[in-house]
UniProtKB/TrEMBL annotation:
<keyword id="KW-0479">Metal-binding</keyword>
<dbReference type="Pfam" id="PF16912">
    <property type="entry name" value="Glu_dehyd_C"/>
</dbReference>
<dbReference type="InterPro" id="IPR002328">
    <property type="entry name" value="ADH_Zn_CS"/>
</dbReference>
<keyword id="KW-0862">Zinc</keyword>
<dbReference type="InterPro" id="IPR036291">
    <property type="entry name" value="NAD(P)-bd_dom_sf"/>
</dbReference>
<feature type="domain" description="Glucose dehydrogenase C-terminal">
    <location>
        <begin position="150"/>
        <end position="363"/>
    </location>
</feature>
<protein>
    <submittedName>
        <fullName>Glucose 1-dehydrogenase</fullName>
    </submittedName>
</protein>
<dbReference type="Pfam" id="PF08240">
    <property type="entry name" value="ADH_N"/>
</dbReference>
<feature type="domain" description="Alcohol dehydrogenase-like N-terminal">
    <location>
        <begin position="33"/>
        <end position="145"/>
    </location>
</feature>
<dbReference type="GO" id="GO:0008270">
    <property type="term" value="F:zinc ion binding"/>
</dbReference>
<dbReference type="GO" id="GO:0016491">
    <property type="term" value="F:oxidoreductase activity"/>
</dbReference>
<keyword id="KW-0560">Oxidoreductase</keyword>
<dbReference type="InterPro" id="IPR011032">
    <property type="entry name" value="GroES-like_sf"/>
</dbReference>
<dbReference type="InterPro" id="IPR013154">
    <property type="entry name" value="ADH-like_N"/>
</dbReference>
<dbReference type="InterPro" id="IPR031640">
    <property type="entry name" value="Glu_dehyd_C"/>
</dbReference>
Amino acid sequence: MMKAVAVTPGTPNSVHLTEIPEPSLDQIPHGRGVLVKTLKVGVDATDREINEALYGKAPEGDDFLVIGHESFGIVEAVGENVHRVKPGDYVTATVRRPGGSIYDLIGTNDMTSEEEYYERGINLRHGFMTEKFVDDEEYIVRVPEGLKHLHVLQEPMSCAAKAVQQAFEAQQRMKIWRPEVAYVFGAGQIGLLTTLILKLRGLKVYTLARGKAPNLKAEIVAGMEAEYVSTRETPLESLVKKTGKPDLIVDATGSSTLAFQAMQHVGHNGVVVWTSITGGNNSIEIPSDSVNLHWVLGNKLLLGSVNANRTHFESGIRDLALGDMMFPGVLKKILTNPVQGMENYQEMMRLLVEDKDALKVYVDIA
Ligand code: BGC
Ligand code: ZN
């Protein structure tokens, strides 16, 4: 048996330490299994909301869900038909597992057209906050040794990579699209990693958050040569006056109010990307006539983006590598709050819920 951190879906604040059987290679058919020793697991707002019982389901037949979807580990053993990784390699794992739609059948599980989705550590599949896990090599992505100091950032980076890539792909509707100015709403992990990707693509990037500089988020944004904007000091309207309307807005605030606000500021032919999962029940009034009017007159596009497939993990890893060389030492600063061992799961949740300065909470497992 081995230790794991789990919740009882449907019961608020049920996070607890438990024991589950150790996984083994022969759980995965055709010699394609990869057995991974977990080194670190990151947590984010999704884990907080799962613990609040806002969503998350146990796998069929179980009444608990092992949490943890941001994995980083080292390969311990591989089946005889595995060729992508070998024992001793650092790896992360994708999160979504296939359902039955055509998108699932071609490896784009992140685009499933089925209502139900399967995500390790989130929905209907156990997660990675355990001592070991096993999976098909299809879902295991190698992390270069030179990036091991950025460990749990690979999964959030994959989500940012997908969001930006989707925006650029969708904008091919313009035939020619040369975005110059981007706003990123939110300077949490997704906001900061999106800032990086857009900088690497040569855009002028403004990253907006509430807090006044100096603070850590502002320091990281400046370190990536983007501009940090405190909305306490500079209201959105004055920023738009200064920069002109942006070509692209990525919302990563976790606030649906701000997500809708973005729609009032994007420029003609522009695109707004929503990345936040808002598990609550908020509702707001919006100037719908005006948004509708300008949206139509400006040929604007609204895009939702969730999760990521293997290709986004791979491109995210390439951008993390490039970003780490371009802006040495900056990305590491995102990893603010390590928690020592799974036994300290209460401290992990406390940091997630209460500590507004905890940019990234992760558990050191081994
Ligand atoms: C995860 C994604 C997942 C999404 C919805 C996010 O926190 O990083 O991989 O698809 O939650 O469950
Ligand atoms: Zn997440």
